[in-house]
Each structure stands twice: as C-alpha cells, then as structure tokens.
C-alpha cells in the first residue's frame, strides 16, 4: 500500500537537491522552510521505499515517519526508534555520510533491534 504524500515530490526533490548542493556551513544557513521541506520529502521517500511500521524515524521539529517491514506498532513509545537532527538526517539521505559515521557523531539515538537504516540509505 502506497503512503499518502503530503509533500509534492517535485518541490520536495528541489528542496533536497538545493540542500545537497551546499556544503555543511552553507546548508545550515538555508531557509528553515526549505530544510523542513527537504526533511519531510526524504522521510516520505524512506517510508515509500521501505514500507512498514516497525521503526519510527524522528527528525524534530520537522517530521516523523514509520518504515521498515515487521511487527506493527500502534500505541505508546515504539520499540524501534531513531531520532536525529535535520542536518544529519539529510546527510544520511544524500549519502554525504554513512550510518556508522552518523552514529559516531553522538547526535543519533537508535534504540531497538530494527533501528538500523544502513540498508535503506542513501535515498539518491
């Protein structure tokens, strides 16, 4: 079953490409709405490519999605949660950094047996 998209794919892809084209210092200076669109678009991409409900990916304050096939979570705190800042999420989604490097930053929390996105990233 396909996910319901809230972000126009063309607009989201443009925002994501604009983020990719900037180096880390410039990317932090991009307008907040552009970063928000890029994050939400990439979360939707992840959810569409790895449909499921066993892992929750949180990128506060911009968005959250559930993905990865497996046991469905319906109430309370999910058993498999990944939470990370937007800059690291977009770097992972773009392939600028890998999963292990992201974890090594100390800014990514990943709890649960399925909380590993290395097989799903990068998205480009």
From TrEMBL:
<dbReference type="InterPro" id="IPR036527">
    <property type="entry name" value="SCP2_sterol-bd_dom_sf"/>
</dbReference>
<dbReference type="Pfam" id="PF17844">
    <property type="entry name" value="SCP_3"/>
</dbReference>
<dbReference type="InterPro" id="IPR041629">
    <property type="entry name" value="SCP_3"/>
</dbReference>
<feature type="domain" description="Bacterial SCP orthologue">
    <location>
        <begin position="32"/>
        <end position="123"/>
    </location>
</feature>
<protein>
    <recommendedName>
        <fullName>Bacterial SCP orthologue domain-containing protein</fullName>
    </recommendedName>
</protein>
